[in-house]
Amino acid sequence: MRLPARRLLPATALTAASALLTGCFTGTESATGTEDGKRVRVAMMQPPRSGLSPLSDDAFKLSRWSTAETLVRLDEDGGARPALATGWRQSGRTWTFEIRDGVTFHDGTELDAASVVRSLTEAASASPKPRILDGVELTARAADAGTVTVTTATEDPLIPQRLSSPQLSVLAAKAYSGKTVNPVGAGTGPFQLTAVHGTASATLDRYDAYWGGRAKAPGIDVKFVPDGTARAAALRSGEADIVEAIPVSQAAVLDQGLITEVPMPRTNTLYLNNAEGPFADPALRAAAREAIDADAIVKGVYEGRADAAEGLLGPALPWAAKLREPVARGARAGDPKGAAITIGTYTDRSEMPEVAALLQQQLQKAGFEVELDVREYTNIEADALAGRFDAFVLSRATVLDSGDPAAYLYSDFASDGTFNLSQFADKGVDAGLEKAADTEVGDTRRAAVVAAEAAVLAADAAVPLLHERVIQGDAAGVVGAAHDPRERELVTVNTYVR
Questions:
Q1: CA dihedral 220, 316, 82, 215 (to 10 degrees)
Q2: Interstrand relation of 242-246 and 40-44 (parallel, antiparallel or unpaired)
Q3: pTM, to two decimals
Q4: What distance in Å separates the CA atoms of residue 17 and residue 20, rounded to the nearest whole number?
Q5: Which range has the worst mean pLDDT, 139-153, 243-257, 266-280, 293-307?
Q6: Over 205-221, what HEC string results?
Q7: Phi/psi class of residue 487: alpha, beta or left (left: φ > 0; alpha: ψ in -120 to 50)?
Q8: Average pLDDT for residues 434-451, to the nearest whole number?
């Protein structure tokens, strides 16, 4: 979807933004080419949070660079398809996966059942577990050199989809030899991760022995650029070939033929601290919900390039709207009487501070006293997870891990969910989330997911604000860049720069 130009950034702002990237993509990074194309220069939004450990959200960077792979991949509809596994079957609590022959890791060792078991066991025993394994007790065993069995404590119809999560990537033994998981030179994808320079940059080279065929680009040069204006300037000036997450406010700066608006299963949500502080009172949570004008945020911050939320699941999952019924709220709005609250958010997505500022105005008008705490995400996540804010504004991918929203709902709203920013605990909601997770894939599961969503909304555990449409920039010479709503693919085996 191409977008019309709406607002131009002043030239002085462009100059300042471009200066932030001066020297980022220089020398052989931009000049080296092959018969297929040049190296791909990528400007990414968020720097690594955990040293590119696949057991963290950094796993999605490894996936977007096509360096780490999983047993299963997802098709456009969220169905499970072969990747490092060629097939699978279920028998009760056990799934059996056939491992692909002829695959080598980037260090030259061979993929086999033992290496798969090692990676899955590391993930299952990690603390905290990857989100995709929230509430899942998983044991992997090698039945023979080419077959792996995965057994869960209870029957889990979503195991193939779970194993598609980049957080369950299969890496060589060398990756697990230290105190933390190190993916450098340990993947199976068409690009080999060769160097990581902290939170500044990463380098990948083509892996010519890739089982899926030779990549068209000789390599990828990644820079982490949290500043959205700088990312937009990098595309406009030709300093980057692919730029992810261009801010809405910068879209008009660019040649409209270079940007693509990607509908995302991503919800901008205000998580309310249910455990302590003013929002432990259901009446004040209801007051906050009623005070919020999502339409004003969509128009004022996103310039209409977003959809006001009707629920936690947005238009990228059209079946949710068809199944959704009016929510029966559990509490009436009370009088805030000047209750003091602190809202936290982050600068990595440039719209977030603006959203928080509008929320501050709306909630103050309703009678709250509101302070904002805005930092880079890497410096605020721990405090948010620890419940140190009364509310937190987050842009959250709702099917990021498995292609199925049940895992997201469990992670964010189950009593033992590992991403429970709302500090929310409700036995009735837990039961609904468990039902959704246990139901077979299909219409019945979707109905259970929507019922669980309604239970979360009825308690005002969080207030969904809007659903984003992320904008990606591709330079004119870029061929074959992925535009993936799930944020799993970006540079693929078929991507290159002319």
A1: -20
A2: parallel
A3: 0.74
A4: 5
A5: 243-257
A6: EECCCCCCCCCCCCEEE
A7: left
A8: 91
